[in-house]
Specification:
Number of strands: 9
Largest sheet: 7 strands, mixed
Strand order of the largest sheet: 5-2-1-6-8-7-9
Radius of gyration: 19 Å
Number of helices: 9
Helix content: 25-40%
Number of domains: 2
Shape: globular
Mean pLDDT: 82
Order of helices and strands: EHEHEEEHEHEHEHHEHH
Length: 295
């Protein structure tokens, strides 16, 4: 896919130390039958992920547009993949901000780099937006989809934070802290994001609510992993989420939000005009050296 083309969907994948799953998740995303681009943001990985992605970037632009994956031997299409590299570890929220800035699709989907969330759910996520019913869609792990049974106290914490968030935002979401969120690109362009780590989930929810955007939820499958398998979110992120609820949430809507939201849903979104994206800048060998994490 050339830089001048605008895909229907941009899949944004923040990555940090996922060398055991990165090949498989990219294969799964590519297997979904959608007109899409894949934007991968490496958040200064130190476990070999960064070196793999640097090799992937070399195959993606400008040629040959395909590569043989070293771990599995599968042939991967790469002409619709762009790889970006953070100079230092900043967190999921910072990586997503950069990915959103680069996205050219009419719809933007967040995909984690582990295997907890199945890209086969993409069609469910984008359907309400494509039908003109929603501006933002959340994929909920608690609406009946199949899921791996894990971590009772994580479930309790999630439900507590989601309920508290709903009280402040006046939304009735069942799963604020889900990875799977899909947006019309125009929504993201009008939201100024600040959080660097997992506080992003609450910040974006609060600001979507304040903007008066139409929000849908759909059930998704979920295959949670243990900390031994690489899970990264901790109780500290839960405390940050609580602070973000208080900082960003308000029951009051922005003046004229609903009227303005209707104006933003103009026909021009079907053919957005976007600036040309610069070529990928591959990291130097020096950039692979581990750096102290700031989060």
């Amino acid at each position: 896919m050339s830089l001048e083309q605008c895909p229907a969907v941009s899949v944004v994948i923040p990555v940090y130390n996922e060398v055991t799953t990165i090949e498989e998740i990219i294969l799964r995303v590519q297997a979904v039958d959608l007109d899409k681009e894949i934007i991968i943001i490496d958040d200064a990985s130190t476990d070999g992920t960064r070196e793999f992605l640097a090799d992937l970037a070399r195959h993606a632009t400008p040629n040959p547009g395909a590569m043989t994956l070293p771990a599995t031997g599968h042939r991967l299409r790469t002409d619709n993949i762009r790889v970006l590299f953070q100079e230092r570890n900043q967190g999921k929220g910072a990586a997503l901000r950069r990915g959103f800035q680069e996205a050219r699709g009419r719809i933007v989907i967040i995909q984690d780099a582990d295997l907890e969330y199945d890209p086969d759910n993409f069609h469910k996520l984008i359907e309400p937006i494509e039908d003109g019913d929603a501006d933002v869609v959340y994929g909920s792990r608690f609406l009946g989809g199949p899921h791996r049974v894990l971590f009772f106290w994580h479930y309790v914490g999630n439900k507590f934070l989601t309920t508290l968030s709903d009280m402040f935002t006046d939304l009735n979401l069942s799963d604020v802290w889900t990875c799977y969120k899909a947006f019309r690109r125009e929504v993201l362009k009008q939201i100024d994001l600040e959080e660097n780590r997992f506080g992003f989930e609450q910040e974006i929810t609060s600001k979507v609510a304040k903007g008066g955007w139409r929000v849908f939820e759909v059930p998704i499958s979920y295959y949670g992993r243990t900390y031994a398998e690489g899970k990264k979110i901790t109780w500290r992120d839960g405390l940050r989420g609580l602070w973000c609820i208080l900082r960003y949430s308000s029951r009051a809507r922005r003046p004229f939000a609903l009227r303005d939201a209707q104006a933003r849903r103009s026909p021009e979104i079907a053919n957005p005009q976007v600036a040309q994206v610069p070529q990928i800048q591959e990291p130097s060998d020096a950039s692979f050296a581990p750096e102290p994490q700031t989060e």
